[in-house]
Amino acid sequence: MNMFNAEKIKNECVQWIRDFFEENGKGCNAVVGISGGKDSSIVAALCVEALGKDRVIGVLMPNGEQADIDKAQLLVDTLGIKHYIINIKDAYEGVIRQLPFEPTAQTVQNLPPRIRMATLYAVSQSHNGRVANTCNLSEDWVGYSTRYGDSVGDFSPCSFLTVDEMKQIGRLLGLPAELVDKAPSDGLCGKTDEDNLGFTYAALDRYIRTGEIDDPAIKEKIDYKHRINLFKLQLMPAFKPDIPIAEIHQ
To answer: What is the pTM for the complete model shown?
Structure first.
């Protein structure tokens, strides 16, 4: 992990974003859901460096009251990007009210990020946009994302960077420390990510990059979470019958 060259990777990521838009939406805007956490802050900042602030749109999506909404506002103010505040409370409560059963805790926690992703696409399709995925490698490794919620998007600048690596890039981008070093939280259950996971990101990042870990119990927990959540990172399984498809040559 000490060999990580933040400046080199940051510059390569910025160029990767430029190349993506050149090939998959020349002149389009990057649409980024802004939570007030480090990941969305860093992705937005990378997009600004890659495309210019006039081609990045931030979307703040509180579910009623959001305790750290000021952090999300700080980010869009720091970057100087156009942004919208779209409160998803009515949509969320409307779905919950219509459920003909008592929703589970998991249902309640995962519905907001799925509504937020639908909202991002509503903004994107009305603003010639491409939706940024803001996940990182550490979270993806243990399935700490919502399928068809924050796990998706049109392009993902940071899904192969660990939490520690993200922080290094965030500091290099000149983002406020209160955004880069803020304790990661899903904003759904009132606990930090590390509280929910049962181990630190420092231990997880070290294990991902070096294979080294001090506590066998934590290794077992990480391996288990990785194994049962791999499906989130894969394309949807599809039955493929033995029926020929014509080869069409361009």
So the answer is: 0.93
- Distance, in Å, from the CA atom of 92 to the CA atom of 4, rounded to the nearest integer, reads 41
Phi, psi of 79, deg, nearest 5 = -80, -20
Tokens 């998706």 sit on residue: 152
Per the CB < 8 A criterion, the answer to whether 71 and 79 are in contact is no
What's the rounded Cα separation, in Å, for the pair 9 and 4?
8
**Cα–Cα distance for residue pair 159/212, rounded to 1 Å:** 21
The SS3 of residue 217 is: helix
DSSP 8-state code for residue 1: -
Total residue count of the chain as it appears in this document: 250
pLDDT tens digits for range 138-181? 999 999 999 999 999 999 999 999 999 999 999 999 999 999 99
Angstrom distance (rounded) from CA 172 to CA 203: 23
Per-residue pLDDT tens over the stretch 93-141? 999 999 999 999 999 999 999 999 999 999 999 999 999 999 999 999 9
Q: Other CB atoms closer than 10 Å to residue 194's CB: what's the count?
A: 17
Cα torsion 151, 156, 157, 159: sign: positive
